[in-house]
Amino acid sequence: MATSSDTTTESKAITKRPKNLAKRKDANKWGYFFVAPFFIFFLIFNFYPMFYTIYLSFTDLAGWATEANFVGFQNFERLYNNELFRRSVFNTTILWLVNFFPQIILAFILAYWFTNRRMNLKATGFFKSMFYLPNIITAASVALIFSSLFSYPRGPLNLIMMDWGLISSPIDFFRSVIGTRLIVSFIQFWMWYGQTTIVLQAGILGIDENLFDAARVDGATDWQSFTKITMPLMKPITLYVLVTSLIGGLQIFDIPYLLTGGGPAQSVETMMIFIYKQAFQGGRNLNVASTASVFLLIMTSILSLFIFNSFRDKKARKSVKGVK
Amino acid sequence: MLNKKWFLGLATMSALTLAACGNGDTADEGATDEEVVETEDGEAFEAPTTGGEGVLDVWTFTDEAATMINDYYLEEFPDLDYEINISEVPTEEFETQLDPVFGTDSAPDVIFAEQAFVKKYVESGMLVDLSQFEGIASGAENTFDYVKEIGTQEDGTFVANSWQTTPGAFFYRQDLASEHLGIESPEDMQAAISDWDGFLNTARDLKEATDGSVYMVSSRGDLNHPYYMSREQGWVVDDTLVIDDQLYELLDTAKTMVDEGLMMDADPQGEEYFAAMNGDEVMGYSLPTWGMHFWLKPNADETAGNWRMVTGPTSYFRGGTWMGITQTSDMQEEAAQLVEWLTTSEDFMRTWAEETGDVVSHEGVVEEVRGDYEEEFLGGQNHYDAFADAIPAIDGSIITEYDQTISGAFDDLALTPYSKGEVTQEEAIEAFKLEVQNLYPNLQVD
Description:
heterodimer, A: 324 residues, mainly alpha, MetI-like fold, 0% strand, B: 446 residues, alpha/beta, D-Maltodextrin-Binding Protein, domain 2, 4-stranded mixed beta sheet, 19 helices, 13 strands, 12% strand
């Protein structure tokens, strides 16, 4: 239907206006029209809330109050002195570090194996999808699976370990600070290493084969070509993985919240859980939640910029674009 | 022809925009589209709705509301010239759904609220004064005082009322008691556990007699509710956090019971907690009126008939549902009629008590029916009579708008870790205070 109306439009336009040029110029404005929905959405659901949040962080809006009074930097000052918030920053950092380093190392190894022509692994496609699978399951289901897996006293893991004689009495994992942190970090690791592997693999495949061939002719070992060619050329893509993982890691919320709600002893209370609790529980302190959000935004920006800069010094490569 | 393109583009855009808006702003135009949302546990439920003009919107978290309204209220008044739209939201999502619209035009006309959070809405100042309605004011004279006290604002305005009272009791296994403790009747049991020292000693006797195979109680959840309700002051007095002496005693009792192996230490309302109702591992549970019907009976089919109830170390109450009318409601008269009938009508109270066994809030009706019960589950004991005895001792003044959050924080950060020996008492109290200060920055903590 659309096509037929288009042709009639065209034929009429042609009869009316003999010059084709004018018509083509006219068509350009449809471009704006078609990108408009995105910008309207962006303005309503991203731009406005962002600035509204920043505005709220300078007010005293909380609880049932409907009017916000300007209070200057008071919220920031209080947040800075807030022990629980500091603890949540610390928790977030720990959770991210413990999940990211094993993740990137394993992903590198896997990506290297998958792309290594000498090893010539079979069924890499199958393994890649298997490794990616945890990422497809929703966080709620993952949290449920792990909480029943580690449940106390009669969870499957406790039963198996007792059966094998590894432990004499069941362990209450979610009552232990280290245990809970490790479990949360492990889940993040397990959910994301497949994704990271695929990104890194794409990066490795983007490297010119001739470089490896030339190195091989010169007598380089596998390890040498990996450290001297692959690693340096992978910098941009590693940077990409690092920054996206950092941003995701700073905003970690679903898994720890669904597993223990931040406990035990606030050990996995992350910044996002802090923000959520401030906004929706207790006194519903929207102002504090907004302030913490603004802080998180600033922190994310500074860390990202820092990482970008520290990589840029060693010369930015064109392959960033090619790979992405 | 240009118009057609404009139209197509606009249609696409508006479709996209509408899809994203959900039913947030469209409430007043009568959004009855059923939107399905999920709770934290992934359980799906329908988003609450408001019906617009001429529809009385009722938001609740309990399925009793639908029963009471559909099977009783609408039977009694079949010719109402308006519709009643009941939205049932799971308890854990109720506040997050209600809070954003409460106080706005999109709010429902009638809300149900549970003891844990009723004060939040009562003190919000956004519920209407019920004493302005003749019927409720006179009807509520028969309502138990503590029920009205909880439904009353600090300045004395009466804004929420309830159809039920929820005294608690200690339910125990008579067969285990006679076998291991030689206690043959509820009277003897009550004598043995009339205070917490007696309770602990009985628990020790039980452990000795059974070599630790039978625990006195299942979890800290059997201790905290009686203790909370025996405090002298609520959580917050004059904007200051109060840690009553009873709470320190609760910490000590719970720790003693865990240390000495007198408590099974299951998670309250967890799998083991319910499983033990059918086993022979746990002597008793602290439960209120509704706890017997909804938790104990369905999980204790194999041990039915062996249970008895006594007051226990302290009289207490737990839970209960109040009803209030929002100030933004444009059908306050109609709403008041509903609240009046459900919370003060003698006829309804009597029928409801007789048909469900619920302990109602009408003093006269309770007096009238209390003699007529014989609960087979309790081996013929009259539970209604026993519950009715406990009502006058209930103190509603210690319920505050902070209860849900602060009690939750106390359970999570002080009671649980301290009783399990993970932290010292000082650390526990510090962690608890820090959390409270964060949840309510305007409170004076310390």
